[in-house]
Write a structure and sequence with these properties.
- By secondary structure, this protein is of the alpha+beta class.
- It has a single domain (12-153), classed as Glutaredoxin (3-Layer(aba) Sandwich).
- It is built from five helices and nine strands.
- It has a seven-stranded mixed β-sheet. Strands 6-7 form a two-stranded antiparallel sheet.
- 34% of the residues are buried.
Length: 154
């Protein structure tokens, strides 16, 4: 089923690229843009990450801390961060616990083949850990995602 607007996010979010545990309580009193994406170093995911990188200061000014989540390994995340100078953390959800809790691990279809994967989704979370907005799937403008988030919350 997954989480929806009005739900509180779980306390344990996972571990980042440096094996540090990330908790929702780390962001108490702060807003969070938690974005789930399919895979490091793919065109759409790179465009989205770079948009969030380029708009990072504006997002922070708007009160939002950014964290990315994919099922890639910590070492993949480290390389992705380094290659594109990403100023935010990436959670490595290799056990798929978080993608399943949030309901973004779903059946997808590519060229007629069905498979399980992460549906690109951004959850905008308030200072108390409550989901305020969800942007999902084809509604996400990967090239302008930071502006899209800021436009929603103004």
């Amino acid at each position: 089923m997954g989480l929806t607007v009005g739900d509180k996010i779980p306390e344990i979010l996972g571990v980042n690229q440096n094996d540090k545990e990330i908790k929702s309580s780390d962001f108490k009193g702060k807003k969070l843009a938690l974005y789930f994406y399919p895979k490091d170093n793919t065109p759409g995911c790179t465009a989205e990450a770079c948009s969030l990188r380029d708009g990072h200061e504006d997002l922070l000014d708007g009160g939002y801390h950014v964290i990315g989540v994919s099922v890639d390994s910590k070492s993949s995340h480290q390389k992705f961060i380094e290659k594109f100078s990403l100023p935010f953390e990436l959670i490595s959800d290799t056990d798929k616990k978080l993608v399943e809790q949030f309901g973004v691990w779903q059946e997808k279809t590519m060229m007629g083949k069905k498979y399980m994967g992460t549906v690109r989704t951004t959850f905008l979370i308030d200072e108390n850990g409550i989901i305020e907005h969800i942007i999902a799937g084809r509604n996400i403008d990967t090239k302008n995602h930071a502006e899209q988030i800021l436009g929603l919350v103004k």
